[in-house]
Design goal:
Layout (H helix, E strand, L loop, with lengths): L2 H11 L13 E3 L2 E4 L4 E3 L6 E2 L11 H13 L4 H12 L7 E6 L5 H10 L3 E8 L2 H10 L4 E4 L12 E7 L5 H7 E12 L5 H7 L11 H10 L4 E10 L2 H10 L8 H10 L3 E12 L1
Parallel strand pairs: 4-7, 5-6, 5-8, 6-7, 8-9
Antiparallel strand pairs: 1-2, 2-3, 9-11, 10-11
Helix pairs in contact: 2-9, 3-4, 9-10
Amino acid sequence: MSKKMNSIARFKHYDTLLSCPICHTAMAITDSAICEQGHNFDFSKQGYLNLLVQNNATHYDKELFESRRELITESAFFTPLLERLTTIINTYHQTKPLTLVDGGCGEGSHVAYLKETLGDKLAIAFGTDIAKEGILSAAKHYPTVSWLVADLANMPFANQTIDIILNILSPANYKEFDRMLTQEGCVIKIVPQSNYLKELRHYFFADTTKADYSNDDTVALFEGQFPDFTRETINYTTQLNAQQLSHLLHMTPLTWNLEEDLIQQFIAKSDGIITADFEILIGKK
């Protein structure tokens, strides 16, 4: 079965979870996705579903998503974080397999890892991103996840249908998240802490405001939506080789406006040790 047909079959099995992004009525899957009012959305040949109401220009291109995928799959930079997320989701009380959405999934490597490691714990895992290039890469490499090009401000899921929403180093839309969550559902948001990528901050931005970082405002917004939220931190270092450093430097927004010569100078001088410093915020409906 082709990627497209395999994806259509999986979407069809769970089409009650979907909602039209135009009129918000229920959707049915045939060889396309069509809602009760007749709005029709086609599957790509790679198997993803584009549910954007209008095209949106983004700063994200194919090179960025390939750098991110290669960093995640070829190094251990995110591995301890993903292992911890697996443990957290495994402790989730359930009477049936869970529905999960990664909102702002990029090229999808994080949610694909979780789908593989959690297995039957998840009934279905969706990855959504507004950047078509990211979802195109995701659909090419990870056929067990259901991929959608979609806007966080207008998510194509019916009310109270999603058990777990992931939001990893990505913008959030808590109004939409709250609408989508089941009564026992939760949002798991990953935000950087002050030491995240400190080696890059100290090298490129010494004596500037970018040398230091605080997540206080982000955490306060999350607490405003989920007053009884829980939080935990995870901090570690990983040694990256020159190629992996290059992937990291081309992936992170910290270095997007830097000259390539400066990036190559850092790679040549660096010992490859990079700090990962995250806070995991868990909010229940």
